[in-house]
Amino acid sequence: MNNGNILTSIRNKVATIIFSHPASNSFSSKLLEQLIKNIDRLSNDDKVNIIILQSDGDRVFCAGASFNELIVIQNLNEGNHFFMGFANLINTMRTCKKLIIGRVQGKVVGGGVGIISACDYVFATEKAAIKLSELSIGIGPFVIAPAVERKMGLSALAELTLDATHWQTAYWAQKKGLYNKVFEDIKTMDEYVYSLATKLANYNPEALLETKKMFWKNTAHWSTLLQERATISGQLVLSNFTKKALQKFKK
Prior knowledge:
Helices cover 49% and strands 17% of the residues. By secondary structure, the protein is of the alpha/beta class. The two termini are 19 Å apart. The model has no long low-confidence stretch (mean pLDDT 96).
């Protein structure tokens, strides 16, 4: 089974992490674990001052949770373990000692929106529409909700959650605060992102760290909160409603 891949490179004090998965860059448990390990390692690497997080391809940034894994969850322990992957990733990004720039080239669903929300600064193309589809399959965006609300506000979180089958445009996401700038094409975005990242990487590392801490003030309780939310999702994924919805989606 292909669990996806992580490719990391370092240049001019800028680390670039590229994640990929054949199923529209969705996240398996293994891929989540790999990404967490890479961010942890870069967080403590003195040769790195800035991290760029991106995915492979040109159409989809991330399709969220792996449906192949969701559909085979049989008990609460398995469900909790899977959703803790997203909880641990968001908390790892939150506590990372380096600022994380998100580079979003295409559509984003579910958990992918949470991951973008956990970035410190985010850039996207016009094709980077977003959607939280969790409620439509009987779960809900419980684990990622704190990150989305922190970035976009409760009103935007409610709209994304309740209108679960509707795509919101990249410009809507920018207006709500998820994206800091939207570009017409990938080439223009990449030039801007790397130029900015290189500039930031040459600033005082101590100042960058204190800036990161300032951005994430009052979130220390997320270590417990996201664990509680993972348990809720782990329970709901076992419901008959969700099992039927996942089977229908697979077909």
